[in-house]
Amino acid sequence: MPTALLVVALVAVVIAAGPAGPVRAAATPPPDTTPAPPPVNVQVGSTAVGRPIAPSFVGLSIEFPAIRTYTGLNPDAINPVFVQLIRNLAPGEAPVVRIGGNSTDATWLPARGVHPTPGIHSTITSRFLALVRNLATETRARLILGLNLKLNSATEVAAEAHAFLTGIGAQHIDALEIGNEPELYTIAPWYTTPSGKSVYSRRRGFNFGVYAKEITQYARELKGNLLAGPATGNQVWLNKLPKLFGVEPGLKVITYHRYPLIRCFTSPGDPNYPTIPNLLALRSSRGLVDGVTNQISYAHNRGATFRLDELNSVACKGQPGVSDTFASALWVLDTLFSLARSGVDGVNIHTLPEAAYRLFTFTDTNGHWQAAVKPEYYGLLMFGAAAPPGSRLLPVSPSATPDLRAWATRLSDGEVHVLLINDSPTTDHIIRLDPPSGAQSNAVVQRITAPSAAATTGVTLAGQSFGAETATGSLTGPFQEDHLQPVNGQYLIDVPASSAALVGFVPAHSAG
């Protein structure tokens, strides 16, 4: 080194060292010696199992007051971003939209001889009916509409049904659902008086038998219009389906509500307490309809469909840091496949603006709508790509390990899809995949990713996203998929931590 440069270098060292002494090189972290997990062998069978994926399998469940928030207040200018986000869930089909939830029994239509109580917070108006009618027209939606049971009035039930059928149109209505979770009528107060007294909509003796008698009475008032029920989240009530069909054989849709976790009435350490590990546990996805497969079959045997018309991650309006994270997208993917495997005909993901599990939020600036789309919605889209209507589930072995979940479908054109979900927050996995016989010699892979399971932004699906906000409701950005070649007849797929990969195999006879 030239003398001048050597002097400069020495001076720099002295200045940097300061009074504490010479500079020491930063300690190099020791290399990670944790061995990578061995590849997981996954085999896909060729014989279809279960029922085909029903049309409009994924829909939405929306509270009555939320309709105005989502559509806007002008029936002639329905929020176009909301319209597109609904259409995305059932491309080319008629999505099923349920309007109900707790607000079912807090909503009324003013009718002669019917008196509202402090438990009524929402009124069915001509503008509301026009909003719903035009939303249904623009989305081609089929509606499940809630009727107020807490008022305990056949006149009210008949008036609401008449308003829906005439103000919205029978052509848009799939079924009318009387009440919401009536098993809670004697447990959860309807309202509280100014003095602090809790008032319940039914007396302590109210049970399933009383409910069934009321349904019989109201069904006569509805004069044969197709009914949905029992709108329950209680398996004990669901087990009484034969009695319900006995008093009302015209039930069209059996409705059941499920949330794997609950924010109220639980504490840390409880398996139902909302945390990301609890949400990603198998019991939270594959255990949601344990014990009710007989009831699903019973409904089918009676000519009815079985629908989870209220489903989401955490009851009591969700849990921030859990319901609004990318973990919810991974959870809903495994959950939807599990429900389809159990014979469920469809689900409605519940959303409302103030809930942590909301699927989107909207802003309206002088008629220009923008939406912020949440991670769980991406999971709904990936399910739709993996299991379109008419596809059949194929057996997969193993279907689950402590970190991995695997599902496969055969589409009506013979294409095979394999979905691989890595729920581990830290461990990447390599899958050694044996496809079913007849698969093409190459495959394509689409991925759903985010910075972490706890991320609330930064989600991409096949490289695309809705960005921080969307003015169209459509994914944007270059579509990305990887092409794979087999090695000794198998395919090696890397599935990084907290991500999922959808592998598509075109049948050999249609390749090229």
Q: Biggest sheet: strands, sense, closure?
A: 8 strands, parallel, barrel
Radius of gyration over C-alpha positions, nearest whole angstrom: 27 Å
Give me the CATH fold name of the largest domain: TIM Barrel
Count of helical segments? 13
CATH architecture label name of the largest domain? Alpha-Beta Barrel
Helix content: 25-40%
Kindly state the mean pLDDT as a whole number?
92
Give the distance, in angstroms, between the N- and C-terminal Cα atoms. Answer: 64 Å
> How many beta strands in the DSSP annotation?
27
Question: What's the arrangement of strands in the largest beta sheet?
Answer: 2-3-6-7-10-11-13-15
What's the number of domains? Answer: 2
Strand content: 15-25%
User: In CATH's first tier, which class of the largest domain applies?
Assistant: Alpha Beta
CATH superfamily of the largest domain: Glycosidases
Runs in which pLDDT lies below 50 for 5 or more consecutive residues are 1-26
Spatial shape: globular
Structural class: alpha/beta
